[in-house]
Amino acid sequence: MAEQSPAKKLRNQVKGFLCNVSPIKDKYFDAVLQREGEYSKVVVFKPQDHMHFHNAEKTRSLVTLKDVVLQPSTESSKKIDVFYTHSSKMSCDRNLGEAFNNSFCAEPQAGQLSELLNMDTKPKRVSINAKIIQEIHKGHSVVWDGQYLPRIIYTVADITGCMNLTIWCEHSITVGEWYNITNVSVRDFKGKTSLSTTKDTQIISVPSQGTAAAVQVPTETIKCDIIGANIKNLFICPCKHKLKNVTLSNPTIYCVSCKTHYKSTAIIMPFSGHLDLKPETGNVVKAKIEDEAIRSVLTVDPSASQQDIIRSFIALPPMQITIRENVIIKMEDVPQKAEIKSEDEISNKVEPVEESTEFYSPPDHGFLFSSQFRKRKFTD
To answer: Is 101 left (phi over 0), alpha (psi -120 to 50) or beta?
Structure first.
């Protein structure tokens, strides 16, 4: 027999003190309830009650949660989870005062990066105090739920060590400043430990914590010919969801996540892939490239196809390309060397001009003679 949903199980009433109330996560949020000498996870399916929970935590009030569902925790056999459903209610009885256990809700102590690097078993989430050393890469990526989100990778360091930190979504970060960063996930990829923000991550500026470990990710700039390209494109709806089975010739495109039909012209089409680069000396270099770098050298027509982009890259002249951690971060025309002529070649036909009291304004050539770099444009 299938297990009953929380809404159909026996209703209960519990009392306790709320702490660790999370931000709203889509259609729910969670908290911790101190009750009867133990702690229970509370999952709240009424986002409209978030402010009441937040105020109860802030004022340290004893609360009663009525008509809730209790069931054994999936994380511990000795604990009970509390489900606060759409028919549940909360009331505040009194201020908590001295009974509140401050030690439980205190923010976890910031761990040192060297400890994370040396741990055999990595914790799922940690908090750190770290200095932002360098921006390594800036772009976008599709996450597990199909959203296309901005992503910046930084090198961060404390007084004991350094590692990479991936910041998802927009955050106000300044290179060279120290931050307290809570609830970041720890990952091991190809033997390298790195950090990544989560939906619960908070980033707060803090005073300097000392002299951070010296580290700088090397950046290489090479003059090279583009001898190969493999470029792919994504289709993203206006609400940043990845689309599948898209036909741009159709007047509208349906997004399953949004449950909405959009104009084809409203669909975002970012490109990414890799280029094979042949330097003047040395072996071929294969480097990743993302949409921002692609559009810095090519004016992409809305109807451009994957093959259009590839042909345009192959047709480019030798370029000056800057690479960091195998990712292209900048592409430019190769600087032209100024031609130096000997004195004999310099024209000696310039004759002195008599001084005149009349002055004439030189003609204004406007932007016609601008030497500013121009992107290549291509069409089908």
So the answer is: beta
- Tell me what percent of the residues of the chain surpass a pLDDT of 70: 78
Residue with tokens 């741990």: 119
> What's the 3-state SS for 161-187?
CEEEEEEECCCCCCCCCEEEEEEEEEE
Q: What is the dihedral of CA 30, 32, 35, 39, to 10 degrees?
A: 120
63 neighbors 92 (Cβ within 8 angstroms): yes
Evaluate if pTM is beyond 0.70.
no
The backbone region for 227, taken as left when phi is positive above 0, alpha when psi lies in -120 to 50, beta otherwise, is: alpha
Residue 157's closest CA among 197, 202, 117?
117
The 8 Å CB, 24+ separation contacts for 340-346 are none
Read off the pLDDT of residues 156-208 as tens digits, 9 standing for 90 and up. 999 999 999 999 988 888 999 999 998 898 888 777 889 999 888 889 898 98
CATH placement of domain 113-206: 2.40.50.140
311 closest CA partner among 378, 374, 375: 378
Same fold, 9-103 and 113-206: yes
d(CA 243, CA 254): 8
Token pair for residue 364?
A: 């204004």
Cβ proximity of 105 and 65 under 8 Å? no
Count Cβ neighbours within 10 Å for each residue of 130-161 and write b for 16 or more, e otherwise: bbbbbbbbbbbebeeebbbeebbbbbbbbebb
Is the model's pLDDT at 326 over the cut of 70?
yes
CA distances from 80 to 33, 43, 101, 211, 282 (A): 10, 11, 19, 45, 63
Query: How would CATH label the architecture of 9-103?
Result: Beta Barrel (2.40)
3-class DSSP assignment, residue 313: helix
CA 283 to mean position of chain CA atoms = 33
Sequence spans of domains, the chain: 9-103, 113-206, 219-234+269-333
The pLDDT assigned to 365 comes to 39
